[in-house]
Amino acid sequence: xxxxxxxxxxxxxxxxxxxxxxxxxxxxxxxxxxxxxxxxxxxxxxxxxxxxxxxxxxxxxxxxxxxxxxxxxxxxxxxxxxxxxxxxxxxxxxxxxxxxxxxxxxxxxxxxxxxxxxxxxxxxxxxxxxxxxxxxxxxxxxxxxxxxxxxxxxxxxxxxxxxxxxxxxxxxxxxxxxxxxxxxxxxxxxxxxxxxxxxxxxxxxxxxxxxxxxxxxxxxxxxxxxxxxxx
Length: 231
Hints:
The chain is an alpha+beta fold. It has seven helices and six strands, in the order ββααββββααααα. The chain is globular.
């Protein structure tokens, strides 16, 4: 999979701009975007995050000073400064992802604003591209599946989409816990831990309500899960 195209409309400094990227060949599968400070490199990265992951992206956009509850505020600030003056109440980002030369997907996310510039609504569209022909898919049902199958889920995106200017800052910080969480999610350890917690709660509830519960069997299951976590 590779990012073939990113199109921005009324997004921050981009009134309308389209960027196209070639298919990687010969193992050259990295896209590097360079430019002077203030020329929109980080904005392009933010647009990519927000288009693919929507609200789930805000946690990873630390450079923009975002927190999980700041999605609406970020969108308000991201709307192009002249959009409302020109009576344009819509901001849009489209990302085309190609699996091979003839098959891929396009994600289009649009945000709508009131006359004061406050974010009001959002729409996401997912199209399947086959031999140059697009057909719409059910975005709410299939976008997450497409991202997990062909791209990466939101919690792993920082491993692959990152701002090079921030690398030194990250290197100077202790990111052990952040990396551990990402790797545990990738390996399914988080799911095992949640299962263990639910099993423990179930065990406690059963012990309180039914004295004839096979406690030894439950203890054995908990021990097995604990061993799996340490492997």
